[in-house]
Amino acid sequence: MANIHIKTALDHIRRSPFQALAAVMVLSITFFVITIISILAYSTENAIKYFEKRPQVIAFIKTEVSEEGVMQLKSKLENDSRVTDLKYVSKEDAHEIYKQITSSNPLLNELVNPTIFPASLEFSLTDLSAGEALVNELKSEEIVDTVGLTTNLGDEEELTKELERLRKITWYLRLGGGAFAALLVSTSFLVLLIIIGMRMTSRRGEIEILDLIGASPGFVRVPVVIEALIYSLVGTVVGWLAALLITLYMREGVVAYFDQIPVLPADSLSLLQIFGLILTGEIFISIFLALSGSLLSVSRVRKRR
Amino acid sequence: MLKVRNITKTFGNISALNDVSFNVEVGEFIFLTGPSGAGKTTLLRLLLREFRPDSGQIFLGDEDITKLKNKQIPLLRRHIGVVFQDFKLLPQLTVRENIEIALAVINLTRKDWKPRVERVAELVGVEDRLNVFPSQLSGGELQRVSLARALVVNPQIILADEPTGNLDWETADKIMELFDLINKEGKTIVMATHHQGIVDKLNKRVVEFKGGKVTKGGLTSSELKEEKKEEEPYGDDLSDDVNLEKNIEDRENINKEANADDDGLIIENRSVKKSSKKKTKTKSEE
């Protein structure tokens, strides 16, 4: 039975190829844009996470301070809600880090005394706007020598600005992209509605015959729903595939440009996994579009009869 | 099998059927005859529940089909085989698929389709035409396919609305022989026709309609002729011819009104709907 419905749906597509093409093209554009917006949202989100997660503040401890004193400050910071990813780097740890960095030049390593390395407390901020106050608080701590920033974006103020800008871009991208995607989805929905409505009107005679031989409303609906699903799924795959190919083509350049900032995964498998997730989501949207569009259209046409 | 009890149906101020009653027994073949606009097709459409009667009952088996809910109508129609004057085949499907679609509609498993289709195709004589499209068939063949589609679901009853209306005399004769054969195999058939020659040849029971009423309901064609000879020894009822023009006009009106019926199962003519709305408005304004 399904074969008859599929055949009917394919017959209808074959008989009016331009309608089918129009539907597929509109849906392809919609899902292409949705895929691109999703990838951009992923990239900006990753960029923000990158800046937020990396240690932003380092409080260097005075050399004469005992480990007990440092632990007191550590425990104080651990209880501070503005602080996250707190790490204590002892003098020995600092020496180890130095040795690793200078491993290519043993002479440098031999020349330094391990005791000159200060212990430090490194941490990130949950909210950069609280950074200034926290840094000032740390500076007033007796055991703290200096407070520094690990970022290579410049000073603390500049980092805050950069992150704010990045957040704004992400917000605008999500808002604008979401609105644009919603507009395109609505257009696709309307196109499906119109095309399926036209199909139902052109099938009037056929539907009348089916009604007379005892076809249930579901039997009449199935080929129309299948047709809408074909348009929708083909449109989705075409749009998604186009976005994937463009991203694959541009990936190397983008990764190289942003260097350490992981705006796109460096390996193809991870990238494909992300695209797979996007495709899954899009297929759900696409099925919803096809079902709602076709069923609404069928019910409207049958109501008029 | 089929009991029609005091059926009345009006479309606006036109009375299409007026207190119509008759019975059809299992395995019977009856003709509904009468001039155009007499109410034959309206009755068939009531039997198919395209719309409800204003009053009266129609029993198919033990069930009063006038009381069926809309969602039960497809189930009713799966027990009725219908043959139309204009064949009503789907042009994009082959003959085989046109017959198969009736089986798909009743949800029969696909593996059972082939033997059933081939059996009915052989019965109606289109077994060598199964893979061609309706556009490649003659009128007689199209009607055979239409009959095969009606028969393939093994219906309780076959309703045929002027099945020979679009056929030449010779082809019509062959189609009628086929109907007769099917009836002899035990199928109940109700056929609306105004081809008196066909009715006379098969000599089955005739329910004669005139102006929406049953005028004769229990005699065979030959018995009817005898009775008419006794009633009118000088010839046919001339009033039929006088009323023909009016009947045609009435029929057109009936069809328009039927399309505006509130049942919602048949295609509404939107222009008719609009004009009726306008009329209502004008009346209320007045």
Name the CATH superfamily classification of the domain at 2-79 and 156-240 in chain B.
P-loop containing nucleotide triphosphate hydrolases
Q: Portion of residues in helices of chain B?
A: 40-55%
Q: Total number of helical segments of chain A?
A: 10
Could you tell me the CATH topology label of the domain at 2-79 and 156-240 in chain B. Answer: Rossmann fold
Unreliable runs of chain A = none
Order of helices and strands of chain B: EEEHEEHEHHHEHEHEEHHH
Q: How many beta-strand segments of chain A?
A: 4
Mean pLDDT of chain B: 79
How would you describe the shape of chain B?
globular
- Unreliable runs of chain B, pLDDT <50, ≥5 residues? 235-244, 261-286
Summarize the biggest pleated sheet of chain B: 6 strands, mixed
CATH architecture of the domain at 2-79 and 156-240 in chain B: 3-Layer(aba) Sandwich
| DSSP helical segment count of chain B | 10
The termini of chain B sit apart by 50 Å
